[in-house]
Amino acid sequence: MSDITTKSPRQGLWFKVIVAFIIVLLITSTFIFGIGGKPSFVSPGHLIFTRAFPPSVTINQLAWSPDGKYIAYANSDGAVWVVNATDGSIAEEYKSHGCPRDLTQCWINTLTWSPDGKRIASGGSDGVVEVWDSLTGEHVLLYHSNSIYSIAWSPNGKYIASTGNSPLVHVWDSVNGKDVHTYDSLSQKVWWVTWSPDGERIASGNDNSKVYIWDTASENTVLIYSGHKAALQELHWSPDGQNIVSASKDQTVQIWNATSGKTIYIYSGHTGTVNTAIWSPDGKHIASAGADATVRTWDAMDGQKIFKYTGHHLQVYSVMWSLDGKRIASAGADGTLQVWWAVSCFTVWNVCF
């Protein structure tokens, strides 16, 4: 009689059940608790990181680097900070716009990256646009004007447009600072300037509630948009260059055709001045923010609400999408830079919807 014993079918079944249970347990725990302390599933508004300054410091504008690795932001203390976009750790600080530490003169209102990411331009209440080497922090160029409210780099990187406490929009060479063009908006102040994606037009938002669009070659005014009832705060071309989104003190965000001036949609979801509104990289959504201390994301076609972010406790001045459209950075009067998820994601598998 043989001493060899065979495993019963029931024993084999129980073994398979136990193994399957362990696998399900591991997958479930990974889903719930994530890996390395990071959640495996996030929903819109989930905070990735925040950087805070003293209450007296305001963050006026921020800009995501062209490669998506860094975020630069301008403060009311005369500094430009660059942080890593993944965790908020400091990568660089540029300190100037100094004036003798008088905060009314040191206030930096605006900044922007060059298209190749090698330079940063910032402008402030001291009437100076400073161009920095983004790697070394060294000054490359100084351009003097009136108090600077907005600057924009041309898509080819050759020119910078700047606006300020005057009706003029100055376009100048980004290498030597030589004036190239000057456009007169016939208003008292120009709050914002932006280039079309093809570099052939410039749009400015003014305190007289109008948007002016110029042809950069002929210097002629090709369109005046009059849909707003109060001063413009910010405006941006859509990624395809067909439309413009504009934010205003009249508490609306308006989307309109950049060629005909026809209004496409008026968003009235905010309860105060709208300081900023910007397209998502795919042109399908808008993120807007303002005096009501909220950031709202909505459908660019019909205004359908997607999400309302309430992480700030004072008005929000600046909002930017990440290059992949999955994250949003916001900053404002509460002195905080906050980066948060704009979509729902299974971060373990990098699947977002």
Outline of the structure:
The chain has two helices and 31 strands. The chain has 353 residues and is mainly β.
Explain this structure.
The chain is mostly beta strands and 353 residues long. It has two domains: 8-37; 44-352, Methylamine Dehydrogenase, Chain H (7 Propeller), CATH 2.130.10. Helix content is 8%, strand content 48%. It contains two helices and 31 strands. The protein has helices spanning 9-33, 103-106; strands at residues 41-42, 47-52, 59-64, 70-75, 79-84, 90-95, 108-113, 119-124, 128-133, 139-144, 148-153, 159-164, 168-173, 179-184, 190-195, 201-206, 211-215, 221-225, 232-237, 243-248, 253-257, 263-267, 274-279, 285-290, 295-299, 305-309, 316-321, 327-332, 336-341, 345-346, 351-352. Strand 21 (253-257) and strand 22 (263-267) form a beta hairpin. The longest helix is centred in the N-terminal third of the chain and has 25 residues, at 9-33. 43% of the residues are buried.
